[in-house]
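Aim 2, interim progress. The first record below pairs a target sequence with its structure tokens.
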Amino acid sequence: MFWAFCNDVTSGLYEVSLTTGAASLIVSHPTFEQVTGLYIVAPAAEDGAPAACTELSASFPEGSLTGTIAFRLPSTLFSGAALSGQVSYKVLHGNNMLASGNKGAGEMVTVPVTVQKNGNYEFTVVAYNAVGDGPSAKISTFIGHGTPTVPQITASYSDGRFHVEWTPVTESSDGGYLDPEQVTYRLVRYPSNAVIEQATSATFADIEFEEPSTLTSYYYGVTASYNGKSSQEAFSNRVTLGSIVPPYAHTFDSEEKVDNHTIINANDDHRQWVYNSGSMVIQWNSSMIFLQIHCECQYSECQQS
């Protein structure tokens, strides 16, 4: 019997004789750890059962829901003794038996597997004999077509045209199969929600656009789609066009209005203006200073307060 003992003087693990009741120190805990529970881990298998299968692999090419699971049967027992002759095996997904059979010890086995839908799957392979099951070997994989990753997008404006570019999607976000040649993109201009491209394979757009008469901030969103699945929408930087027409008031009461400006940290310290719940704030001496900054313009004159 083992005893985790701790008091104000010492702490350690003891073995207690069931015959005499004497306690023998096995190991001391120099930092006085207090152990509140002990258990002995059961062996993964009986000594006479097969060892674990090795070299597991899963192949479901090009998004197919039908593929194969391959593995090598053990050539030893769990005890380490040699194993020969036929070895039984079973392949499971959860509690569902997918395949079973027999083959020579140490040989490779490939079994066909079909699943019903896309998703992450964990398969378990077990070798067994009359003594019992060997240790489980597991492999996890995503089967089916995947969801595109989120592209990155930038926008600029010059000579009466918007120039929009985004990175091509070449991978899935969930580990599923994705063919980059089959990815399409939906491009939208905001704040007007104008759909520029519904399903293009290009990764850029050159868009003629007349500059507005009033100050307006524009940005673009792009969504990648593949095999019926779509990425999250990615948004570009904002591009502000047009002119301020007096009288004009700017209150910084929304984060979008801040995007029309450039915040300059002139002395390059850790204090910088940031937007916070309808105001521009700056950290100073462990407290937040809230300032309502606005600009009022009449004709060609502008005053800031």
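The second target in this work package is listed in the same format:
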Amino acid sequence: MAIVNMKRLRLFGLIRDRDRLFEALQQLGCVEVTEQTDRLSDPDWAGLVHPNSSTRSEKERLLEETEAALKVLDEYAPVKSSLFAPKPEVKMEDLFDQDAAADAALKAHEINAYAADLRQNASDQHKVKTTCQTLLPWVSLDIPLTTQSTASMYVAFGMIPATVDLENVRKDLQLNADASELFLASTDAEMHYLLFCCHRSQEEAALDVLKSYGFSNTTFKGITGTAEETVKYLTKQLATLEQQEASITEALSAYKDARPALQLTADRLSQEIQKELCKERLLDTDTTFFMTGWVSEPEEAELVKTLDSFDCAYELEAPTEEEYPSVPVKLKNGKIATSLNTVTEMYSLPQYGSID
């Protein structure tokens, strides 16, 4: 293995050329832009420059939306692909096509909106199913579940554990509150579901009996009519929700052809986010910017050729020994040794200037 020689780059450029220059550097892929926080604390610099503004947060939001849309398509419009299928080749002008990017962003927004509708639909279905399940034990009762007590009669819906013998409950009620009646709606493995009525004058005595058997009141918030009527209504509502779900799912499947454009947009946004991260390391005046970085020596000639096409001032120089600890390390190996780079990077790269 060999460590590639590096050169320090210092550059002053014009704000008007900044984006084009960074696109050119990004295409070269040989410059690592460095932080300059130390200069901001230097009074000589702080009075002249300010940190570069960035649109990174907006691009990160767009990338998040695009990746979310792709995950939705993975579920509702999946595409079979070979594990060893070659990566598609993309032209540079296609990767950074702004019109195509805007169209993909619109499609991502539409897909995510459908996904939000599906989540709401699933929530609504769950609520309807849960309500139906709650009401099923009461379907045999032919009185509205909103029936209230009156001035002369106490009315309550409630439950008693299924292990309780209801005949014993009725006998105790007859002894202590003979002006009362207990109606059984249904029984399952855990509970008796009951409607209880009694004269107001015997309410306290009757409730004492019921509580001794574990009676607990049940209320039905938001329910009107009988349990049977409500279950029928909710069953129709559930059928409508299921139809809506099928319609949304079908609409999402129509976006399967948008996958390549969304993948390309995700790649483009990833590149732009990296560019914005680099731009955040710049120092600006009203009309110029200053940047520092490192470039690998073998690519120096190509970099110089690129920089000379812009109105900028720059210098390239070898690092001093004092700078070695901060110089990035790039390895140059043969084909066999290159395969071991990943293992080397997992532990620690050698320091610049040392023997690898």
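Residues 98-135 form the longest helix (38 residues). This observation will shape the mutagenesis plan for the next reporting period.
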